[in-house]
Amino acid sequence: MSEPRRRPPGPAWLALPALAAALAWPLDPGRAPQxxxxxxxxxxxxxxxxxxxxxxxxxLLPTPRVLDASGVAELRRPPGPFSLALTAEGGIRYRVxxxxxxxxxxxxxxxxxxxxxxxxxPLLSSVERLGQVPASGTALLGEVSLDKFLLLVSAEASADxxxxxxxxxxxxxxxxxxxxxxxxxxxxxxxxxxxxxDSGMAMTGAAAVEDGWGAIPMxxxxxxxxxxxxxxxxxxPWRPVSAGTVVDAxxxxxxxxxxxxxxxxxxxxxxRRVGDRTLLGYxxxxxxxxxxxxxxxxxxxTVRFTNRIEWPTSIHWHGIRLDNRFDGVPGVTQEPxxxxxxxxxxxxxxxxxxxxxxxxxxxxxxxxxxxAGNLVVESSDPGYYGPAHREEILxxxxxxxxxxxxxxxxxxxxxxxxxxxxxNTMLVNGAPSYRLEVRPGExxxxxxxxxxxxxxFNLSFPGARMKVVGTDVGNFEREAWIESLxxxxxxxxxxxxRFPAVGTVPLxxxxxxxxxxxxxxxxxxxxxxxxxxxxxxxxxxxxxxxxRLGAHDAVRRGIDRYRSRFSGPIAHELELDMRTRDLPLVxxxxxxxDSAYFHPLEATGTMPMMNFMSTGNEVRWIxxxxxxxxxxxxxxxxxxxxxxxxxxLRNRRRTLHQMQHPIHIHGQRFLVLAVNGVPNDNLAWKxxxxxxVGATVDLLLELSNxxxxxxxxxxxxxxxxxxxxxxxxxxxxxxR
Length: 736
Ligand SMILES: [Cu+2]
Hints:
Layout: H1 17-22, H2 53-56, E1 57-62, E2 70-76, E3 94-101, E4 114-120, E5 127-133, E6 137-144, E7 150-156, E8 168-173, H3 184-189, E9 203-208, E10 215-219, E11 237-238, E12 247-248, E13 254-257, E14 262-274, E15 277-284, E16 290-296, E17 300-307, E18 316-318, E19 342-348, E20 353-358, H4 363-366, E21 373-378, E22 390-399, E23 401-402, E24 405-406, E25 409-410, E26 425-428, E27 434-438, E28 442-450, E29 457-460, E30 465-471, E31 474-482, E32 485-487, E33 492-499, E34 503-515, E35 520-533, H5 541-546, H6 553-560, E36 570-580, H7 585-594, H8 608-613, E37 619-625, E38 636-640, E39 644-651, E40 661-665, E41 669-675, E42 678-679, E43 685-686, E44 688-691, E45 696-702, E46 707-713, H9 716-720, E47 724-730
Parallel strand pairs: 12-14, 13-16, 14-17, 16-21, 22-28, 27-35, 36-39, 38-47
Antiparallel strand pairs: 1-2, 1-8, 2-3, 3-6, 4-5, 4-7, 7-8, 9-10, 11-25, 14-15, 17-19, 18-20, 20-21, 22-26, 23-24, 28-33, 29-32, 29-34, 30-31, 30-33, 34-35, 36-37, 39-45, 40-44, 40-46, 41-42, 41-43, 41-45, 46-47
């Protein structure tokens, strides 16, 4: 089955050097073809464009009155701190850049003086003005965030026309409109019914599955094909069993460690309460999350780790630029720590910020069951983050719990290899109902870490303003207002939120799910916690400072010495891809139908059975070096300490299934220079970046730390299905 291709109506808009110049496109002096996403042939072989035209471009077709005219719209990421711009509801925000060619003078069509572009819902239930466009040329227009939409251009008597009055001359459908209810599936695959309309996504039903897997939770309101319900992973189901006494999981404890201090960490089996369920899990020192380790910047601490669980394991110190020997990657930096064995880590903390630690072996099981803890590295500057009344450290997670308890894991290989194990129970600090009490006017600093296997959250506090302050390895150059916080697995963000008035404010995750079979979007909303605002108002000097966006001059100055490298050549280009083999026919067929459109962000699990049955036997996720063709661990990059290189990550869309990938680089730090060619103007050091489907992300990687380091996707199941590589950083021959 071939993918639909839009054949543009005329060749005139194809080569648009003027567009690039007009919009100051960052032309790449390094490798040749870096065109804006929509400046080439939309059918050209990827990767000639800087983003996937199939997802980020729309060819506009002429109406019969202007058959020689044409147009193309680019769906451009608006500037902002995240690689994907979302609304609080989870819609993807795009800035529309519209290029028209060959439209007649408006007066030739009647009493008109100009052309105006509009965005409309598919059935024209709403129409909004996007801005004025020329008869031939390029205009930067307003934002679009509808799931599916039409772009329309009409001739108008006035540029200020509040609604379309004149004739339409150009129109196009959003790439997401390619998703349609697949009526023929009923015939082809035996779907009993394809419901219409929108509904919530609460996991209400469950598929009773025999043979040791228990019952698999199903999202309500999402179409399931009967043939899908028969699917099983071709691995042995594994769930923990308690032999002898099992300790009850405790909430985490704060452990302050001074330079030179030591701590014992044991991975143990625990019994945990999640809502009204009792489950077996794993905890560091019996705690979920693991102990909150608090250190000062530049401290070195010793961690004596003992493995008291039944899997081989290790501890990885996520985001810490430590000595390679202690990075905790079995097979790369150490042997796995076998059950009953010990390993001693010496961890040095160079950079202030919020970090975390977790196993680096079968994370899909061990991390999911509770082995994850936060680390706070306190800055020597007491005003590092700016003023706030209090600080809350929140670890976000989700668990997949069916009527028979936690859904078993795969013994030989991870299940859920396609999309990762999306949970149906949201957790904050290991528990399903986070509560906080504050006084009116309080500014709360939240330090968020996403430790879920695959879920990208889109957090907001409706009714309270939020600004982003910092991320993985320190602060942004300056604070920025945000309407929501998209946070991918392994990412961290520091935000300040002000709660102005008495009442309650929920912490919500709001995303758009894709019902692939019915070809529609659905709303998913989860309340992760509740902030109760009560009592006397606080003194407002911190509140007043909250209203101003602060600048982090030290961060900006620190980045200044790298700016001359921003436009250097691209050292390596990695394509993110996947391959399948031996998939059941029903899955393969459905994936082919499905591949007509991939949403840039798969924010929730709407294909639970197809996902559940897939393992590393059927699915291989791939990092491919575009220079050598080498894949995953066959890639062999070599650098020297002091190198500063540009990397380009391209998330290939033209494949059977694609998904966003949070790419993590061990032992170093990087800047996200640009997404889909749009440069970032507010930078921060990071160790994990979300690469949306079909997107291109440019990084500036600083090689500051010698050793053999991993680069991998932080979706636990994608890592287990191969999506990893190792690069080498050699000691510098001479001081730099
Ligand atoms: Cu991935």
